[in-house]
Amino acid sequence: MAPTAQAQVRVSPLAPAAVPATFRHSGRVVQALHYTDRTGTYTVLATQSGPVADPAAQSSDGRRADLYAYHYPATSTAPNWQLHDFEADCPLDIAARFRPGGLTVTDLDRNGTAEVWLVYRTTCRGDVSPSTQKIIMHEGSRKYALRGTSRLATGGGTFDGGSYTLDAAWQGAPAVFRQHAAKLWLQHREEKAGN
Q1: How many degrees, rounded to 5, is the angle at CA 68 between CA 67 and CA 73?
Q2: What are phi and psi for residue 175, nearest 5 degrees?
């Protein structure tokens, strides 16, 4: 019996300026990818607002920062899934940012259906403490989340943070997904004070 051929996932970067105006989104595009797998052709956007005044804040100096991801099929200008995370009502240092290169597309289980990975951090802090860090992965309609904190050097060779937990969806996932998630975490977990 001949092995079945799986459609190869093809991925290409898309310049933020080349994102179609028909793709409605919030925030500024910081990374965009275009890919084709056995299910179709898609565009994925990672956007963020940066710190802005928060009209719902308890204090007059409260700010918010939002980030979003949108997954558009080629046949529609409406996303078939999206992500929104944020920090709000923060009068201190605030951020909600995708990590550089934090949007990637893979086909680790070689089934012809792409996995879309998003790595980002959110924080509201007035001291030297780790940020919240998350990795969200979508394969088709399935969503997987890994949540924890970045790792900060506290001096004298000691560190604060850096651990994570996997949500229940990972239990039934292929081992290669968990291995890649752990690799991405290590790749992105280090944070310098002030960044």
Answers
A1: 165
A2: -55, -35
- Rounded-to-integer distance, Cα 1 and Cα 183, Å: 35
In a domain, 53, yes or no: yes
Residue 17 lies in a domain: no
Domain containing 74: what range?
A: 24-191
In a domain, 2, yes or no: no
**Tens digit of each residue's pLDDT (9 = 90 or more) over 73-123:** 999 999 999 999 999 999 999 999 999 999 999 999 999 999 999 999 999
Q: Please, are residues 159 and 87 in contact by the beta-carbon 8 Å criterion?
A: no
Q: Is the model's pTM score more than 0.70?
A: yes
